[in-house]
Amino acid sequence: MKKILTVLLSLLMVLCLAACGSNTPATEDEPAEDGKVTVRFMVNGSAAELALYQKAVDAFNAQSETTVVEMIGDSGDDFAALLMTQLSTNEAPDVFYSDESSFGELCKSDVLLDITDYLANSSANLTKAGVPANAIDSFTYDGGLRGVPVDANPEVIYFNKTLFTDLGLKLPTEYVAEGTWTLETFQEVMTQLHDAGKYPFVWENWWGPIYSFLINKGDKLFDDTTAKVDTPRVQYGMSFIENNIKNGNIVWAGTLESGESADSLFIAGDTGMVYAGRWCLPDYVDAGVDFDTVIFPYYETADQATNTVCSTPMVINSATANPDNCWEFVSFYCGPEGQRIRMDGQGNAVPTVPGLEDIVLTGTPENAQAYLDALNNGFYYSKEEMLHPGLSDAMNAEIEKMLVGDQDAAATVAAMQAVATELLGE
Fold first, then answer.
1. Distance between CA 227 and CA 416 in Å, rounded?
2. Lowest mean pLDDT segment, chosen from 14-18, 140-144, 237-241, 377-381
3. Which domains are seen in the chain, by residue range?
């Protein structure tokens, strides 16, 4: 509920900005003592994350001859609301992280700078060749690119190798190598874990884990103003979820006891598999879990494999007084140097620019290639959901009705089609 209220407040602020015509121009800072232009950068994160971000900012400041970046870090839960408030004042940041809940409304309110031409500059730290094509599609609005990925977190299946070995089960990586890692095989593996008295697969109800079951690579649930939910493929995936929830193969995290989570059960060895990004890697390594990763199971053939890719866009305030200086920073921070600095060591994300694969492939897990395969095959948060606040929540709400037994898979698909049609038409 807190998250919902935050999003509603954020959207209200955006609408206020739009009603006023535009956001308040960013302050035209006085030049620093060395004659450099100051750029204000606003970002949210934990203390550890903010320290990494500051490290990249410090590296940029040390090498730039024209720009100095001032980082405004926030560790609170209401960053979206804080950002919207800032954008309505003369304290507006020049550069900031956006998020799923506000990116679309910021685009529609003309708050975000079109950086298409900047990305076309071959001499920049970051060019179009350094941004995944599926990210460009997601972050484009009205013909212009409005953000670039800071990095990415494609989701993969983590499995407990010790648990599988102790139970005498075939490893998921072996199925992948054979080309038989289908949803049908996935169900067989979950059944084996269930029969052994373990939680087979702990699953969460949000757009990424949901849609991964419902689509093949290249499929879309929404196309501009058209809902494409009620299809045989989606119906199969929804029935798969329903049947495996009922037989105990898939454990919806919403039914776990207080204090339990997918991570805690995985670390304790009580569940065989979870679905997550590289963000959980440090915790699993620190806990000493013997694990490996594979791509999300595919429908029938390997070329259909797809998965969630979580990625936050870095954006520039369209009202900034210094767009060139902002791009100088963004292209460094989101380019090869910035991404390497922020993911130095084990890291908790996947680089989106070519040439940094060693960050992922060095160290744990053994099949770290799964992260890179997932990055290339995955789908990002859709533009339709970015531009229609409430669509994701409405879809999740219909799924939850099925999870608690209030409606079956067929009724759920029909309801999702209806609600998507309604919201996309608004």
1. 9
2. 14-18
3. 2-153+312-374 (3.40.190.10), 156-307+390-424 (3.40.190.10)
